[in-house]
Every structure is written in C-alpha cells, then in structure tokens.
Design a protein that fits this description.
alpha+beta, 4 helices, binds flavin mononucleotide, three-stranded antiparallel beta sheet, Pnp Oxidase, Chain A
Length: about 190
C-alpha cells in the first residue's frame, strides 16, 4: 500500500537536499560557457558541469538543465561549443548565468562562428566545437555528449573557477601550458 509522505519524511528530504548542496559547494569547478545556434539565433549558458570524456574518439560532456532555453536549442540544432573561461571572464560568466532577457553575447567580447554554427569566444582558454553524439536524460538535466569537431586553445592564462558559491581565479597558474610531445610532433 502506498504511504503518503508525512512531515518527517519531508524534513528528511529537505535535509538531504541541503546536505547535497553544502557538500557540492566544496567541489571547485572550472567555468565554461556552452553555446549553440539554431536558425541563426545564438544561445548559451554558464556551466561548471562539463567534463572531458574520451580522447579517442574525442568526446566531451556537459550537463544541461532541461528547463532552459539553451537545452531546447541544443536538442533541436544538435550543435554545441564548450568555451573554457579565463579569470578575466567573470562578468561574462555572470551574464550567461542570468535569464534577464538581455542578449548575453552583447558584452563587448569578440565572438566568431564555428563550423557547426555555434559561437566561439575568441579569447577563451580553449574551445571545443561539437555536434551532439548522444543525450542521456536524468532527473532535471540532460547529459549532452559532444562529438568534438574542432579544438582551439591558448597557451597561457589563468582558469576561472567556481567554488563555495564564488568565482575565483585559479591563482598564480599563469603557466605556459606546454603542448604535449605528440601535439608538437603533429605541428
Ligand atoms: C557557476 C555556475 C555554474 C552553472 N553550471 C550549470 C551547469 O553546469 N548546467 C546548467 O544547466 N546550468 C548551470 N548553471 C545555471 C545556468 O547558467 C543558468 O540557469 C542559465 O541562465 C541558463 O540559461 P538558459 O536558459 O539559456 O539555458 C550554472 C550557473 C552558475 C552561476
């Protein structure tokens, strides 16, 4: 027989959610803007839930909330670009995390268009232009697996992180991110 959820189970669920959120605040995440393009219209959102998946074949994943505009555009266009932000991009990250109705691309940064049509941030730490390989639905989010079509990256810079509810530059990491031996060999 199904039992109605009583006040104590409701409290337990609230507690579990608070514990989840508090624990997740401890994870430092790199900040990205995931962009897309549908019928000539640009879309994008700030996202930390991005992960390298496989090098061969080249795949990257992003977890995107199903209720957002960007998800609807990615699902229809089947294209996305992952732009990895640097410490100087905090204002840009805030803009792409706010559904204010204003165009978040309208902030003075320079954007180009990838082969897929998705917008690429010109001074991103790295950009991955993708077509959608698969989408796995789980709860409120889709895990969008991108098949990487093109990669560009810078050799210097400080990554933008998000930890404990705050944006942080990664500190003195302004290293020359040297290309690996195999990358150098293929140049
Ligand atoms: C630091 C930070 C990280 C975020 N990470 C994600 C994420 O990984 N996935 C996601 O769906 N939303 C994430 N968001 C929320 C979206 O950026 C925000 O809801 C955005 O307005 C959605 O835009 P859209 O309606 O165009 O999809 C994040 C927000 C912040 C501030």
């Amino acid at each position: 027989m199904a039992m109605a959820a009583g006040p104590s189970s409701y409290l337990r669920a609230e507690e579990a959610l608070a514990t989840f959120r508090n624990a997740m605040r401890r994870l430092a995440g790199h900040v990205h803007v995931v962009t897309t393009c549908l019928n000539g219209e640009r879309g994008g959102l700030t996202a930390t839930a991005v992960c390298s998946l496989t090098a061969q074949p080249p795949r990257i994943l992003a977890c995107i909330n199903l209720s957002g505009r960007s998800y609807r555009m990615i699902a229809e266009s089947r294209v996305m670009a992952v732009n990895v932000l640097g410490a100087e991009h905090e204002a840009l990250a805030r803009r792409f995390a706010t559904a204010s109705g204003a165009d978040p691309f309208d902030g003075g940064e320079r954007w180009t268009q990838a082969a897929t049509g998705a917008p690429l941030l010109e001074l991103a730490q790295a950009s991955f232009d993708c077509t959608v390989d698969q989408m796995l639905m789980t709860g409120t989010h889709a895990i969008v697996i991108g098949e990487i079509r093109h990669i560009s990256h810078r050799d210097t810079g400080t990554p933008l992180l998000y930890v404990n509810g705050e944006f942080r530059g990664a500190g003195p990491l302004d290293l020359p991110f040297a290309a690996s031996a195999s990358e150098q060999a293929s140049r």
